[in-house]
């Protein structure tokens, strides 16, 4: 039944939500919620059903930065009191009323599940030996990535702390995939594997969900929710849409003021371009990644291309030792002087990180591979 304290979205009354066998009753007051609980119990009895009281819980959300000193109200069904909880999962998303952010526990849970899946993936190596990079990438997209992007369309990218929890799992996994140490640059984890950084991936999913909403009929509840968000966005009030807009601006992408399907599609293209530009600039501006700058890949048809994100052909080399050595050389994770002395206790200028053989030039990959002639073994290996 209707109640004065019902929740409205863009003029649409929202008293309850139903997803399969899960139901959520919503009200802005204890009296309104108890009325709905009583009505639900009556409806169930008329239809020869009974509500499972043990599985029915109440979650209370207070106004921001307010915590009432009064004891919580008592809610009941069939005269039996219901538990009041501070966290609860609904359709796979964990809501929390006892943390600073409603999604804190959800993000922590997703990060924990993703980390567990990643650890299980690499545990297999103790029985099978090293997993080839492509197969390791496939396992990532199948078992780890789903946890990292779970409900991204609804929760967005989260706070900085929430982002960090998920990104730590992604970065650690990709470093193990490429067999790199923990101080390797992050940009090469994506340019060399063809995977998207989690920030851009979650933003892209959120834009995709927004595009999906724009394609729905006007009588759908999700459209009413979007209209409510548009009104909040125009009032410069924090919300799902305004947070998306501000997060896109941080990566130099502008969300259009007119929210339509075609304009959102263009925004998704802009986001992909912004990601590629950001990664390309990071590689080109790094003195450690000279071998990756201005490189050219050849397609199956023989065309010269310079894709920013691509699973690189050298990662398909079957010899494990050769593949690892080449990878570390290309991404500056090697043991040549230019890299080892970079991390010396006392700072050593670049020009003083000299070759161990000729002691006349900086010991970088180009010098070691093609220039130094002071080691007979090195010269012989070149032949």
Give a verbal description of the structure.
This is Reverse transcriptase domain-containing protein. The protein has 383 residues and is mainly alpha-helical. Among the domains are: 7-85, no CATH class; 202-274, no CATH class; 335-383, no CATH class. The chain has 15 helices and 12 strands. It has helices at 30-46, 104-123, 125-128, 133-148, 152-155, 160-178, 187-191, 198-214, 221-234, 240-249, 261-284, 320-330, 337-340, 365-371, 376-382, and strands at residues 7-9, 12-14, 16-19, 22-25, 57-59, 76-77, 80-81, 83-85, 87-90, 93-96, 297-298, 304-305. Strands 1-2 form a two-stranded antiparallel ribbon. A hairpin with a 5-residue loop joins β11 and β12. The longest helix is centred in the last third of the chain and has 24 residues, at 261-284. The chain is elongated and about 90 Å long. The termini are far apart.
Helix content: 40-55%
Shape: elongated
The overall average pLDDT, rounded, is: 92
What's the number of helices? Answer: 15
Radius of gyration: 28 Å
Structural class: mainly alpha
Order of helices and strands: EEEEHEEEEEEHHHHHHHHHHEEHHHH
Low-confidence stretches: none
β content, as a range?
A: 5-15%
Distance between the termini: 86 Å
Strands of the widest sheet, in order across it, are 1-2
Biggest sheet descriptor: 2 strands, antiparallel
Protein name: Reverse transcriptase domain-containing protein
InterPro entries: RT_dom
Domain Reverse transcriptase: 1-95
